[in-house]
Amino acid sequence: MAMGLIGDAVATVGGLVTGVLNFFTDFFLTPPLKATLMFLEETELKTLKGEIKTFKAKTLWEKSGAVVMAVRRPG
Questions:
Q1: Tell me, what's the pLDDT at 45?
Q2: Which of 46, 41, 49, 33 is nearest to 68 (CA)?
Q3: Which domain of life is it from (predicted)?
Q4: DSSP helix/strand/coil, 40
Q5: Which residue has the higher pLDDT, 17 or 59?
Q6: How far apart (Å, rounded) are the C-alpha atoms in residues 14 and 6?
Q7: Residue 61 contacts by C-beta under 8 Å, 6 or more apart in sequence?
Q8: Can you tell me the distance from the alpha carbon of 3 to that of 56, in angstroms, rounded to the nearest whole number?
Q9: Are 57 and 43 in contact (CB under 8 A)?
């Protein structure tokens, strides 16, 4: 019983410290930039399956509509 209470207290304090550090870290981060249409049009895409082809993203919506989601992985 006592070990459970100690474990809960440590987890609560750890969560509180993590939350406070995360809150203060956000002050130093720059806001993300929005991708412009011109930037998305010029992005080079590669196929994942079959023969590897490279093409500009603009070709996806030149003849028909397309939904494009741009995701940048950190690192």
A1: 84
A2: 41
A3: Eukaryota
A4: helix
A5: 17
A6: 12
A7: 68
A8: 60
A9: yes
Summarize the confidence of residues 38-43 as an average pLDDT. 84
Quote the pLDDT of residue 16.
96
The full set of domain ranges for the chain reads 1-30, 32-74
Residues near 41 by Cβ (< 8 Å), separated by ≥ 6? 56, 57, 58
* Res 50: pLDDT: 86
- Count of C-beta atoms within a 10 Å radius of residue 7: 10
Place of tokens 């003849």: 63
Q: Which residues contact 73 (CB under 8 A, 6 or more apart)?
A: none
Q: In the structure, what pLDDT confidence band is assigned to residue 35 with cuts at 50, 70 and 90?
A: confident
Q: Specify the pTM.
A: 0.43
Q: Which residue has the tokens 């494009």?
A: 68
